[in-house]
Amino acid sequence: MPAWPGYCSPNTGCNKSGHVALPISHDAEISRLLTDYRHGNKAVDTIEAAFVAIEEAEDPGIFISLVDREDALSAARELGGRIDPTKPLYGVPFAVKDNIDVAGMPTTAACPDYAYTPTASAPVVDRLIEAGAILIGKTNLDQFATGLVGTRTPYPVPRNALDPALVPGGSSSGSGTAVARGLVSFALGTDTAGSGRVPAALNNVVGLKPSCGALSTRGVVPACRSLDCVSVFAGTVADAWLAFSVAAGFDRADPYSRPIPVGRPTLPPSVRIGVPDDASRIFGSATAAAAFDAALSLFPRIGPAPRPVDLAPFFETAALLYEGAWVAERYQAIRDFVEASPDSIHPVTRRIIEGARSRSAADAFAGFYQLAELKRATADVWSHVDVLVVPSIPDVCTLADVEADPIGANSRLGTYASFVNLLDLCALAVPGPFRGDGRPAGVTLIAPAGRDGLLAAVGAAMHCAAEVRIGANGFRVPAVAPQPAEAPPASIEVAVVGAHLSGMSLNHELASRGGVFVRKTTTEQHYRLYALPGGPPPRPGLMRTNQVGSAIEIEVWALPRESFGDFVSGIPSPLGIGTVKLADGTAVKGFLCEPAAIDGARDISDFGGWRAYLDSLR
Predict the structure, then answer these.
(1) Contact 447, 300 (CB under 8 A)
(2) C-alpha span between 516 and 499 (Å, rounded)
(3) What are phi and psi of 218, to 5 degrees?
């Protein structure tokens, strides 16, 4: 197909700055590929098209190594001629950042003298291949995943997919540009300080940085072992989520793996959005600030007005990563190689890593103490905010910027990214409306660990509303498919009536355990609702009565079976879990209170629900 010339608006398809996107030979969006397969298209043709697209891109900086073409085509043929419903990624081409092991292929971490050839693939790669995905190659990166610019490599620097004057972003430079150009449907990156989000922002694609430990990091060359995450680049949130959900799983052999329920992206009735306050709005230009404000206007109106958040302690946390003792963790990761072959390391990377030699164990403990204080200082934000929305980057970054100031330009790109893993948060970078000068822009959604599904639901709605194209090609973002109002398999439905409602102070206790919103409804008529004394937070008590009652508004959430007991164990007296009968005649587990609790409590049943009662108090 002909090259799409870029953008200045979703209606005109022009590009004010004259930047030209490279040719794309096929639409790599996963749902479209799978639909084509159901209509008779062959996976082998898709894989052949991917290799042709790589040749036509004429960019030697994207891939460090490619799978043998015939081996990839053979793997596609082995899938069979008909789509296999047990393989959710049937025939989907993907790439892997070259600090992630693939059996039989060199792992270089963008340092040829460091290279080794593993006999086993990283578990995340195995899971994707078992699900039917076809590996195309291994992508370029900032050496040893140290950098956010994408230029710290001994190989050619990948060209930004939209504007050759811009850096591709790093450290997952090849993965971000490969997806943006439609060469693969998705690509794995890694993310310690923003490496899975900055390239997404600069190339107009989605970057999913999951909760730490959700994806195994076994078989990954460490940058900061205690903070590293495997990330996912894709053209849409749905594609990124599908790849993530397939790759996710607890890995007992990885000491940093955690059994984090994946859940399902569902948009609850209310989401509390936080945004940087005036002092925390750090932009390199008025153009960048205007693009962020335009993106904010697209967020679904499903909650109160966005709440300004002071990000000073978040920024202070970010400084620890490159200015504090965590630099020593980068040194520890490759210490033997640094000592034996210092001249093999990129000059800027070497300067950063060797700076750790002056750090002591006492410095490390001082850093641990400071981080603990900052975690406490930032924790209160999440009692008022469900999703924090920040610019993915404060401004675009050019190759000339990096040439003039390699350290400073890199640090600026990490302004809103580098604190995330230190504070045990998950994040999702989503494209937004293009800037006034035609360059890409986007936002990052951030939430505490375990709320990946909520970010995906909000991010998908925002991405669709932005009406931008996917990456550097002309394909539109598909409409968000409505989620079925039913609980996922192997889950237990729970009716919540008070502070666990969406957008309220204790909803995180559901979301962090993999809970997903199912539906909003009411109880049958035989219930009374009371405002119980005590708190904070203020709490309602729901009781069933044999006398005249009311239908009380509730939300039904679904918890994974393995999380249900842990959730119930934290419910304090006089509340508990019983069986709640709903207006449609069904029954679910839900919050009830002990009869003794209503002595002296106010009967608020006439309000019809807890939200309406709280609104009456304002």
Answers:
(1) no
(2) 16
(3) -65, 135
Give the mean pLDDT of 91-96.
98
So what's the pLDDT on residue 475? Answer: 87
Between residues 498 and 538, which one has the greater pLDDT?
498
What is the rounded CA–CA span in Å between residue 111 and residue 109? 5
> Whose structure tokens read 């210490």?
335
Q: What is the pLDDT of residues 55-82, one digit of tens each?
A: 999 999 999 999 999 999 999 999 988 8
Summarised one tens digit per residue, pLDDT across range 172-182 is 999 999 999 99
Higher pLDDT, 9 or 236: 236
CA distance 440 to 163: 9
Q: Give buried/exposed letters for 498-517 (b at 16+ CB in 10 A, else e).
A: bbbbbbbbebbbbbbbbbbb
| Lateral strand order in the sheet of 491-496 | 516-522, 553-560, 491-496, 587-593, 575-581
Structural domains of the chain, ranges and CATH numbers in brackets: 30-269+418-466 (3.90.1300.10), 491-617 (3.10.490.10)
Bridge pairing between strands 186-191 and 229-234: antiparallel
* Pair 259, 250: CB distance under 8 Å: yes
What's the whole-model pTM score?
0.90
Residue at token pair 């052949």: 48
Strand partners, 513: none
E strands, 212-347, in order? 229-234, 273-276, 307-309
Two tokens, residue 4:
């799409």
Helix (H) or strand (E) holding 522: strand 516-522
% of residues, the chain, pLDDT over 90: 82
Kindly give, in sequence order, each residue whose CB lies less than 8 Å from that of residue 416, ignoring residues fewer than 6 positions away.
282, 390, 391, 392, 393, 394, 444
609 φ/ψ sector (left φ>0, alpha ψ -120 to 50, else beta): left
Taking residue 45's Cβ as centre, other Cβ atoms within 10 Å add up to 15
More confident call, 555 vs 618: 555
Annotated catalytic residues are 97, 171, 195
Q: Which of 468, 260, 234, 506 is nearest to 382 (CA)?
A: 506
Measured distance CA(435)–CA(466) in Å, rounded: 12
